Every structure is written in C-alpha cells, then in structure tokens.
C-alpha cells in the first residue's frame, strides 16, 4: 500500500480518535482505513493505537510518530504544490490559524477573497484564543496578536491594536467618566475569565500601572463582554479592533485613551520552508493590503 496513504490514514485516525470518523473525513471506508493503518504498523513493527470497542487511543510509539508523520505529509504537500502547481498560482490547501474574534473579522474576508480569485485553492482555518504549535500541526501561517517569543519561525509585522476601555453612553451619563485608571475601582467593570485579560488591567507608557478591578460581571468570551458593555453593565477592557464598529456607531464610548499601554503588534508567523508556496505568499500579501487600509488599527 502507498506510504502516503498509510500516513494520511494514521494521522486522520489520531486526529478524529476513530477509524469510522477518519474514513468519513477522507471519503473512504472504515475497512480501508483499518487496512492502511495495519499496513503501516506492520512496516514499522509497532502498534500505533490501543483499540477497544469504545475508543481508539495512541500508544507511546504512536504519540512519538505522530508529529513526524504530520511533518512528512506537510513536506510532501509543499513539494507537490511547487512542482505541479507552478510558482505563481495559489493552489492546493492553505492552512491558517488566528485568534477567534480577529480571525472572523479580518482573516476570513481575506480567505474569502483568495478563494474567489483562485479556483484551485482550498483553505482550512482554525480560530483559537490560544497559541497552537505551527510546525507540528502543519499550519501554513499563524496570525498572532501580542509580543512574540524568539523562535525559528519567520515573522511579518502587519500592524498593531490597542487596549481600549469602553462603556455605553447611558452608563457614562449615569455614573460619569473615570479621569485616571484608579478611578475604575469605583465603577462597575466587566472582566474576562479565560479571555485576553482578567481583573488586572494595565495602563501607562510601560504598562506598569496595573489597576486591580473588582468585576460586577465576569464572562468568558469577548463577544459577551462587548454585549454586556453595550447593555450598560459597566466598563470593559477590550482591543481596538473588537469595538471599532460599536464606537463608530455610538453604542460604546472609549475612555482613558491617554493612559493606554503600548499597542500590541499583529504578526504573521510561518515556517521559512513555506515561503516558496504561492498560497502562503498570496495570503501574506493580502493581509498586508488589509493592514494598509488600517482596518483594525
């Protein structure tokens, strides 16, 4: 059996934790996927999965082999794109990850435009408010917000976003404006549990003035925090792009803008080995174009 097919089947079973689910994803049959994995196990001389009537899980050998298998499949996909797809026309699959809110507002429109322009291109997006392993997961480009740690990945800066404290006009009319960050302690505040920032809100040119707010309401998504602020529940700490439309429409009022901490960079990260892929180059250039429009600044 073709080695590419066996590796593809193995990764699909590992990802979907089952032979039937892997078969549905790959458009194959469960017996075919079972035979492919069995052939790979015979070739390697190890068991890659623990099998039971209820669950499938990786063995220690399977865990050790999974990242390598992903890397092999990714390298092969890149080689095929370059050889069969030419060096100028985006085609094949583009795999992108981004923060959930930013991805929906500013990355998905770029993907939509690329798909409309290039019939041979497909795309897969993962929207997470956490960092994922780019190389190990076979991701082509990751959109990141915030300061980056040193790594072997290539980085393209495409802009920045700012911390923005907002409340509804009705709340401000009733309770007044905070003049300094510490004034927030006397106001109702909306905090996040599991999102960008919790109860410690930074301010100042070095982000070293931290105000510990006592939240009236705690939520676990940005959408909900913004909706609560619009409903008059108090001040929310969000990022500029997340409330740009609400501020423009007058549903929210920004405050303490002179006390904001330094902007957070918006960057694209990708493995240098993917730089030659037409789809990667097209996506990066399209994101740069969107940044030049100052859509999220």
Would you kindly provide a written description of the structure presented here, covering whatever features stand out?
The chain has nine helices and 14 strands. The protein is an alpha/beta fold and 297 residues long. The strands form four sheets. The chain has a five-stranded mixed beta sheet with strand order 4-3-5-14-6. Strands 11-8-12-7-13 form a five-stranded mixed beta sheet. A two-stranded antiparallel ribbon has the order 1-2. It is elongated, with a radius of gyration of 23 Å.
CATH superfamily of the largest domain: Periplasmic binding protein-like II
Just name the CATH architecture of the largest domain: 3-Layer(aba) Sandwich
Beta-strand portion reads 15-25%
Poorly predicted tracts of residues: none
**How many domains, in number, for the residues?**
3
- Summarize model confidence as the mean pLDDT: 90
According to CATH, what is the topology of the largest domain? D-Maltodextrin-Binding Protein, domain 2
- How is the biggest beta sheet arranged? 5 strands, mixed
Number of strands: 14
| Helix percent band | 40-55%
How big is the Rg?
23 Å
Number of helices: 9
| N-end to C-end Cα span | 52 Å
**Cα shape:** elongated
Q: From the helix content, strand content and strand pairing, which structural class follows?
A: alpha/beta
CATH class of the largest domain: Alpha Beta
List the helices and strands in order.
HHHEEHEHEEEEHEEEEHEHEEH
Output the strand order for the largest sheet.
4-3-5-14-6
């Amino acid at each position: 059996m073709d080695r590419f097919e066996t590796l593809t089947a193995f990764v699909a079973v590992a990802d979907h934790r089952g032979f039937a689910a892997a078969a549905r994803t790959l458009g194959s049959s469960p017996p075919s996927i079972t035979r492919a994995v069995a052939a790979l196990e015979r070739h390697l001389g190890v068991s890659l999965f623990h099998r039971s009537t209820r669950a499938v899980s990786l063995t220690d050998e399977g865990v050790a082999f999974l990242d390598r298998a992903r890397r092999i499949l990714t390298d092969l996909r890149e080689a095929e794109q370059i050889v069969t797809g030419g060096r100028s026309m985006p085609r094949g699959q583009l795999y992108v990850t981004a923060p959930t809110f930013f991805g929906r507002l500013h990355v998905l429109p770029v993907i939509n435009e690329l798909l409309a322009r290039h019939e041979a291109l497909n795309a897969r997006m993962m929207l997470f408010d956490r960092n994922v392993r780019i190389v190990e997961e076979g991701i082509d480009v990751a959109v990141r917000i915030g300061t980056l740690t040193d790594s072997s990945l290539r980085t393209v800066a495409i802009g920045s976003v700012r911390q923005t404290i907002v409340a509804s006009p009705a709340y401000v009319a009733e309770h007044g404006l905070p003049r300094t960050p510490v004034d927030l302690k006397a106001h109702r505040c909306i905090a996040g549990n599991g999102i960008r920032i919790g109860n410690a809100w930074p301010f100042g040119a070095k982000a070293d003035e931290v105000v510990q707010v006592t939240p009236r309401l705690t939520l676990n998504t940005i959408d909900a925090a913004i909706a609560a602020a619009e409903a008059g529940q108090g001040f929310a700490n969000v990022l500029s792009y997340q409330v740009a439309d609400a501020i423009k429409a007058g549903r929210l009022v920004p405050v303490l803008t002179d006390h904001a901490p330094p902007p957070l960079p918006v960057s694209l990260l990708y493995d240098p080995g993917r730089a030659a892929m037409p789809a990667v180059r097209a996506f990066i250039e399209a994101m740069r174009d969107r940044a030049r429009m100052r859509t999220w600044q």
